[in-house]
């Protein structure tokens, strides 16, 4: 299969953002103004925070400032897997927060239900499909933990099924599958850019003032609160919610906890009815495979396949730059793996190829912190699973800023920070060594070498 021919005409714009529905940017800030709450960042975290702030108190003056345009960053270029989990999977939650993991799993379900309800309430056309997720094993060792994981999920009152190779291939026909864990309710598929734009419209309808192309550059304390200096003007507010993803900006303390790691994806042209019939996939589940280096893939509403994952690329000095959004060698690898997964689709073309930075933290799920005497609340570190969890993060930030102690502000997940990453060059070296150790573990039937064992022991081990 000539993958270069399949990739030859692919646009470098993220598929979801390459749409005539993309709204014209709202004008930037050009004056100095007052607000009751300032939200910084116009991705899912900022948008859900602003929306919920207005839902809680319609009279509150809420201003949201976005450095670029709403949803241009991770929120508009992800896989669109909207997962219930708040902890990057139940097992990762168990490793980090065993005392409250079951409660977090329950809160995560409630959060996903609330997203579904908000999509309906505000009439957001986001192609929301609660398909569930199929974790597929492509080697026998990957299926070893399925029965245990299914038992943990069903013990919480949710549905889970373990499938053998024949059952899995009857659902979706890939010669690479040896089994699967199917969780029908815990994940929805959606169109992420449409969600960002839908949230933008809902915020505007509730009276949130949004300024695009307005990067915040500095924060100063005032007797009555904080003044945030942005390009073109400033906003004075007693409370600030900070949701800037992989870009910590002037809040330097975030920097130590975040490593921007690039993730990449391809989108195919729409499949014909015959091509769809050749693979099955009538349940339209989101699919992830189970090695440390994994792929995620899904159907769109018009039956394209998004195929992403595998390489996770960190650049020395925590660099984030548009020039890293394209990585030809990763696109070629993904295309090869795509056709190995679905040889029936030989000849299919890719229409889009893109990447973006993921706000990785050492525990792989969001963390929260505050500054300026709890006048600023921050949430970040979703580590590639923030489409659903970002709404919960908004709820937590509003609770933190309320000054009240609530169930959420008392969670260990909220009170405890992940381990910070070391300074350079140790961070770069450590991430490089860990990536190599994870690749080795995959080649070694999942057996984790000494470095990964040490990282597991200190709470920095990644297991997809
Ligand atoms: C390729 C890829 C695939 C992914 N796939 C999935 C998936 O399938 N499922 C899933 O759950 N998650 C996925 N993720 C992660 C998910 O997209 C993020 O966790 C989520 O979108 C986080 O939203 P956010 O608002 O925190 O960050 P962002 O969407 O990055 O938004 C932050 C915003 O803050 C703005 N900003 C930054 N600095 C400033 C400043 N100083 N002033 C004003 N504004 C500022 C930025 O311009 C940006 O718009 C993926 C991510 C990538 C990159």
Protein model, in words:
The protein is of the alpha/beta class. 32% of the residues lie in helices and 22% in strands. It is built from 14 helices and 21 strands. The protein has helices at 3-7, 44-56, 90-96, 101-121, 146-155, 165-171, 192-206, 252-255, 273-279, 328-341, 389-402, 412-415, 426-443, 450-458, and strands at residues 32-34, 37-40, 62-65, 81-83, 133-137, 161-164, 179-183, 187-189, 209-211, 216-222, 225-230, 233-237, 239-242, 259-268, 286-289, 295-299, 305-309, 313-314, 350-360, 367-371, 376-380. Strands 5, 6, 7, 14, 15, 16, 17, 18 and 19 form a 9-stranded mixed β-sheet that branches. It has a 6-stranded mixed β-sheet with strand order 9-3-2-13-21-20. Helix 3 (90-96) crosses helix 4 (101-121). It is globular, with a radius of gyration of 22 Å. The two termini are 29 Å apart.
Tell me briefly what this model is.
32% of the residues lie in helices and 22% in strands. The chain contains 14 helices and 21 strands.
Draw up the topology in text:
Layout: H1 3-7, E1 32-34, E2 37-40, H2 44-56, E3 62-65, E4 81-83, H3 90-96, H4 101-121, E5 133-137, H5 146-155, E6 161-164, H6 165-171, E7 179-183, E8 187-189, H7 192-206, E9 209-211, E10 216-222, E11 225-230, E12 233-237, E13 239-242, H8 252-255, E14 259-268, H9 273-279, E15 286-289, E16 295-299, E17 305-309, E18 313-314, H10 328-341, E19 350-360, E20 367-371, E21 376-380, H11 389-402, H12 412-415, H13 426-443, H14 450-458
Parallel strand pairs: 1-12, 2-3, 2-13, 3-9, 5-15, 13-21
Antiparallel strand pairs: 4-8, 5-7, 6-7, 10-11, 11-12, 14-17, 14-18, 14-19, 15-16, 16-17, 20-21
Helix pairs in contact: 2-7, 2-11, 3-4
Flavin-adenine dinucleotide (FAD) binds next to helix 2, strand 4, strand 14 and strand 19.
């Amino acid at each position: 299969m000539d993958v270069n021919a399949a990739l030859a005409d692919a646009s470098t714009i993220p598929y979801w953002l390459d749409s005539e529905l993309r709204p014209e940017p709202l004008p930037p800030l050009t004056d100095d103004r007052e607000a009751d709450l300032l939200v910084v960042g116009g991705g899912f975290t900022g948008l859900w925070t602003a929306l919920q702030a207005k839902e809680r108190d319609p009279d509150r003056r809420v201003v949201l400032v976005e450095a670029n345009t709403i949803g241009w960053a991770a929120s508009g270029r992800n896989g669109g897997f909207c997962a219930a989990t708040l902890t990057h999977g139940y097992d990762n939650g168990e490793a980090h927060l065993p005392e409250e993991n079951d409660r977090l799993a329950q809160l995560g379900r409630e959060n996903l239900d609330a997203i579904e309800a908000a999509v309906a309430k505000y009439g957001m056309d986001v192609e929301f499909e609660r398909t569930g997720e199929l974790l597929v094993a492509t080697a026998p060792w990957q299926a070893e933990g399925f029965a245990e994981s299914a038992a943990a999920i069903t013990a919480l009152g949710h549905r889970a099924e373990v499938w053998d190779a024949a059952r899995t291939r009857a659902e979706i026909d890939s010669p690479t599958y040896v089994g699967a864990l199917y969780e029908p309710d815990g994940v929805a598929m959606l169109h992420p850019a449409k969600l960002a734009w839908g949230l933008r419209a809902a915020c505007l309808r509730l009276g949130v003032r949004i300024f695009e192309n307005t990067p915040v550059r500095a924060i100063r304390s005032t007797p009555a609160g904080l003044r945030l200096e942005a390009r073109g003007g400033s906003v004075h507010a007693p409370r600030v919610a900070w949701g800037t993803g992989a870009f910590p900006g002037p809040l330097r303390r975030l920097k130590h906890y975040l490593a921007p790691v690039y993730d990449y994806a391809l989108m195919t042209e729409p499949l014909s009815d015959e091509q769809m019939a050749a693979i099955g996939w009538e349940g339209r589940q989101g699919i992830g495979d189970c090695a440390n280096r994994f792929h995620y893939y899904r159907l769109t509403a018009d039956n394209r396949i998004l195929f992403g994952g595998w390489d996770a690329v960190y650049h020395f000095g925590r660099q984030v730059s548009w020039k890293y959004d394209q990585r030809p060698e990763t696109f070629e690898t993904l295309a090869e793996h795509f056709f190995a997964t679905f040889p029936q689709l030989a000849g299919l073309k890719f229409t889009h190829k893109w990447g973006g930075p993921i706000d990785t933290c050492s525990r792989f799920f969001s963390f929260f912190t505050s500054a300026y005497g709890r006048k600023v609340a921050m949430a970040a570190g979703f580590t590639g699973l923030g489409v659903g969890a970002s709404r919960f993060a908004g709820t937590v930030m509003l609770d933190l800023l309320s000054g009240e102690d609530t169930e959420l502000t008392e969670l260990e997940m909220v009170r405890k920070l992940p381990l910070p990453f070391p300074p350079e060059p140790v961070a770069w070296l450590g991430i490089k060594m860990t990536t190599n150790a994870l690749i080795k573990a995959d080649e070694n039937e999942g057996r984790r070498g000494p470095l990964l064992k040490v990282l597991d022991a200190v709470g920095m081990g990644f297991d997809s």
